[in-house]
Design goal:
alpha/beta; 6 helices; 9 strands; 3-stranded antiparallel β-sheet; single chain; globular; 6-stranded mixed β-sheet
Length: 191
């Protein structure tokens, strides 16, 4: 079983962990960026990460399905569900009003025990929207699982956050960014 330092090294080696001056999806700036698509494109590596996350999530209680936000939660959610055995996996998509919605006939039944799985959590915005969809359907969200917790363990929900790697990553509003002040080139990795 790999420890956090070994996992961070692995992410760095495959280009999934970067250092520099980045604009995050939220619009904030950071000196670190996780491009976890570089991990999920390697199923032979993702398998171990998903197994570790599934083992952590398995401790929160009986789970009947995994729900992931599109896009980042689809592949990790599927990989985690595979390790949980007999657990369904669905995903929520952005609706035209900016919320998340279950489409394609996906459903969460009243009282159904669910976990939300995402590739990385920074502010928790996408996950919060998925939690709202599940709760509006009457489902019970037992926990959130993520490959990388960028909050350093300070999740915005009253439910457990289970992660494979947890790091406190600084981020700033562009107007307060010390990297902008130092005139370091800004990179938009997902552009």
């Amino acid at each position: 079983m790999a420890n956090q330092e070994q996992r961070m090294h692995q992410l760095s080696e495959i280009g999934a962990y970067l250092e520099g001056h980045f604009e995050l999806t939220t619009g904030r700036h950071s000196n670190q960026f996780f491009m976890l698509a570089r991990l999920t494109e390697r199923p032979w590596l993702l398998r171990d990460w998903a197994k570790a996350l599934a083992e952590g999530l398995d401790r929160v209680g009986r789970i009947s399905q995994v729900v992931g936000p599109a896009m980042g939660g689809i592949i990790p959610g599927y990989a985690v569900a595979e390790h949980l055995k007999g657990v369904r996996m669905i995903f929520a998509e952005k609706a035209s009003d900016g919320t998340m919605a279950l489409r394609r006939g996906f459903r969460v039944e009243p009282g159904e025990p669910v976990v939300v799985v995402e590739d990385a959590v920074t502010t928790g915005g996408s996950v919060s929207k998925v939690i709202n969809v599940i709760e509006a359907s009457g489902g019970r969200v037992l926990a959130v699982g993520t490959l990388v917790d960028r909050t350093g363990g300070h999740a915005p929900w009253p439910i457990p956050l289970v992660s494979v790697v947890s790091v406190a990553v600084p981020s700033w509003q562009p107007s307060e960014c010390p990297l902008c002040e130092a005139k370091l080139p800004l990179v938009r990795p997902k552009a």
